[in-house]
Each structure stands twice: as C-alpha cells, then as structure tokens.
Amino acid sequence: MKRRKFVKKSLLSLIGTGLLTGLYSWQIEPNWLEFVKKKMPIKNLPQSLTGKTLMQISDIHIGNRFDYTYIIDSFKKAQNLNPDFVVYTGDYVSYDNEEQFEQLKEVLNFSVKGKIATIGILGNHDYGKNWKETNVSNKISDLLKQSGVTVLRNEQKEYSGLNFIGLDDYWGTNFNPEPIMSQYNDKIANLVLCHNPDVCDLDVWNNYKGWILAGHTHGGQVKPPFLPPFMIPVKNKKYASGEIDLEDGRTLYINRALGHLWQVRFNVRPEITLFELI
Predict the structure, then answer these.
(1) Which of 44, 60, 119, 121 could form a disulfide with 189 if both were Cys (CB 3.0 to 4.6 A apart)?
(2) DSSP secondary structure string, 193-217?
(3) Element at 250 (helix H, strand E)
C-alpha cells in the first residue's frame, strides 16, 4: 500500500510540474523580454561614435500566431533607452495572407527609431509562402521605408562614419551578397546585417573582419537545462544564439528574437540587444 501511495504521489507531482512548466512556457516566458547589453568594439570607429548605442531587434513575426500587442509594448519599453542606431534583422511577419500587411503597418506605428539611423534587412518569412513570393518582400520593404526604416537589400549605407552592409535573406529570391561584399573597404568602420547565420559559412565574405548581426534561430525557443536547443533552423548547429567568435576576425551575434513563430519559450527569453560602440 505504501508503494502504491508513493507511486500515486510521484505521478501527481510529475503531472503538476508538467502543467506548471507548460503554463510558464506558454504564458510567462514568451512575454518576459530581456534587454541584453554588450560592448561592440569596431575597427576604425570614429571617435565621435565611441559610447554611442546600437539596438538590435529581430524576428518580430507579426501575424495571427500570438498577441502582437506584446511587440508594441516591447517597442515602447525599448524607446525609453533612446538608442543612437537601431537595426532590424528580418522576419517582420509570419506570413499567411495579405492581412499581415495591415497588422505590420499597425505595429510599425510604434517602431523604435535611432537618433542617427534606423536600418533593416529582410528575413525568409518576409518572402511569403515557401520564401518565394517576391511581391510580398517588396510590399514589406515598402512598409518599412514608409515608417522610416532604411532597408538594405545587398546594399550598404554609411551614417556618421559607420558603414552598414545589409545582405538580403539567404532563403529568399534576392540573395546575392557577392557584389556588395566585393566593395568591402577595410579602411572604414563596417557592420554587417545578415538574417540567417548560415551565410557566415559561405565563401562570400571577401576577407571581411568585424561584427555580423543575425537572427533567424530564435535561440531554438525551447532549451532544456544542460542540453542544446531541440530545433534551430540552420545547417550549422553551433549557430544558436549569442556572441560567437568565428576565429577569422569576424564576430557573429545571433539575437534570440523578440517575437516567436508559436507562443512557447523555455529557457530562451525573448531579446532586444543594446550594444555600446567602442
């Protein structure tokens, strides 16, 4: 009888723990934003930019899969940090249909802007179904521009002595990094924006040295303690999240995403990153 009671109590305890973990992963952590603060040393950075801040926001995934008022609330919190630069590293929508254009337009009314510049690139979800709908990417690009975001699609633009190189999405229809990377000038301060970190392993970099800001992985969204994330959508599984020294003069930073494809997170809080330029 004692053994039966023990087994029963153990099962009830496991069920209770599972329910609490599920509730936490569904209702708490997906909305528990973390502001991650880091130093970003950039070669050839003008003295006038030393100490300035650069905010990275990635993967907001506006659509019908979670209540995106959370994104608007997060933007309002981020605005209080008054960043000098803001970069958006792709996946503005989880595209199902044209309804997402109006939803994104609503959210962009509250988007965070940099005092010096606001720059964005596109992600795979910004290319619609199967990442092949160029008209969807063009519409999203137009909405971003209308809200004050400079969109770089295999292009570069310099602001106050810092040159931003923006690569279009690896899985999209417009991925073509070689022409812009062939123009890489190592005598100026550079920063690359690239949604999918797998691009780091391609032979397109023209001996680039410096930081690469990426998103795409969401950090896996679910990471059991002491184990790697179950699923990250990259070929190179070491590209999960955070700062990674590529050991060739490049430093990759993968943002864990502000939004989510589905409303579940465990041990991978949503993130906005604030870099101090040095």
Answers:
(1) 44
(2) EES-GGGGGSS--TT--EEEEE-SS
(3) strand 250-254
